[in-house]
């Protein structure tokens, strides 16, 4: 698609996609839904899932950077529990198992419904409807505080959050929104809900990247799009990092209602446009 690296408009479009993916990934407004809308609006064409895999990997690196201390503590305490028999770290081992359980639920169910979603639910109209659903559920938890911390999470909680994450495979349903909503509805503290949600993003994204590597290998346009894909990748890292830091601050201040308003306005606008002007 690039001719001698001179197609500046194409580069700008892919940088915009990387920005949209990166900024919307950690906040509850659906990154996949926004990427679909931006592609439709600007007529950006990508084959397969290679672009989505690349920019999601960028978001993964940013999220791992923000939560690097939590990851280091989890790894150290799991090693201490498993290999040194230090039972005071059993809660970290359980926490890790629950992350893997929620990941497995999403993986198994996701494989079962992936084709249906990709064929039936990726149209902009469905994205608009899903954004309204996201708006409603974020509104539900806007004032919740929760009392359960990391050590209080149960297997049942992990299953519920895993199921919620599966719903977020539908474009327009936010992954972070779905998991945080589920976590807070079952009583988790805001900080715990945030930590579980974004640590859960790590194994899920790694699994998707490993299982989908063939999409990159078999993408006939990957070589031609190497430069725009790389720029989008770098952009997604930077914007995800700062968006996540901002979202953590918003959660602490209890101002989730702004995402309800945003999803309500954008979802309604998309539906009206698709029904009456498209």
UniProtKB/TrEMBL annotation:
One Pfam family this sequence matches: BacA
Task: Provide the top EC class.
Answer: hydrolase
TM regions (residue ranges):
48-67, 95-113, 125-141, 193-214, 226-244, 256-276
Q: What is its EC number?
A: 3.6.1.27
Q: Which GO terms describe its biological process?
A: cell wall organization; peptidoglycan biosynthetic process; regulation of cell shape; response to antibiotic
Q: Which UniProt keywords apply?
A: Antibiotic resistance, Cell membrane, Cell shape, Cell wall biogenesis/degradation, Hydrolase, Membrane, Peptidoglycan synthesis, Transmembrane, Transmembrane helix
- On whether tRNA processing is a keyword of this UniProt record, the answer is no
- InterPro entries linked to this entry: UppP (IPR003824)
Further remarks about this protein from its record:
Bacitracin is thought to be involved in the inhibition of peptidoglycan synthesis by sequestering undecaprenyl diphosphate, thereby reducing the pool of lipid carrier available.
Family membership, please give it. Answer: Belongs to the UppP family.
Read off the HAMAP family from this record.
Undec_diphosphatase (MF_01006)
Q: What is this protein called?
A: Undecaprenyl-diphosphatase
Q: What is the lineage of its organism?
A: Bacteria, Bacillati, Bacillota, Bacilli, Bacillales
Q: Coding gene?
A: uppP
């Amino acid at each position: 698609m690039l001719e001698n690296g001179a197609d500046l408009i194409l580069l700008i479009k892919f940088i915009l996609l990387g920005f949209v993916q990166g900024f919307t990934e950690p906040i509850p407004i659906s990154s996949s839904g926004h990427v679909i809308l931006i592609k439709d609006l600007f007529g950006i064409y990508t084959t397969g899932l290679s672009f989505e895999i690349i920019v999601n990997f960028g978001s993964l690196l940013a999220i791992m950077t923000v939560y690097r201390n939590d990851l280091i503590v989890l790894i150290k305490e799991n090693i201490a529990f498993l290999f040194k028999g230090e039972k005071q770290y059993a809660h970290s081992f359980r926490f890790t198992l629950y992350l893997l359980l929620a990941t497995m639920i999403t993986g198994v169910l996701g494989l079962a419904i992936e084709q249906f979603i990709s064929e039936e639910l990726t149209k902009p109209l469905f994205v608009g409807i899903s954004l309204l659903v996201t708006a409603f559920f974020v509104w539900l938890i806007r004032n919740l505080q929760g009392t359960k911390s990391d050590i209080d999470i149960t297997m049942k909680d992990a299953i519920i959050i895993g199921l919620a994450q599966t719903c977020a495979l539908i474009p327009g349903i936010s992954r972070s929104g779905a998991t945080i909503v589920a976590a807070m509805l079952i009583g988790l503290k805001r900080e715990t809900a945030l930590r579980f949600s974004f640590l859960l993003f790590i194994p899920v994204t790694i699994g998707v990247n490993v299982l989908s590597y063939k999409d990159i290998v078999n993408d006939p346009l990957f070589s031609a799009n190497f430069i725009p894909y790389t720029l989008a990748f770098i952009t997604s890292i930077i914007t995800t990092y700062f968006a996540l830091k901002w979202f953590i601050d918003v959660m602490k201040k209890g101002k989730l209602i702004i995402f309800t308003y945003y999803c309500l306005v954008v979802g309604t606008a998309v539906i009206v446009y698709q029904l009456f002007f498209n």
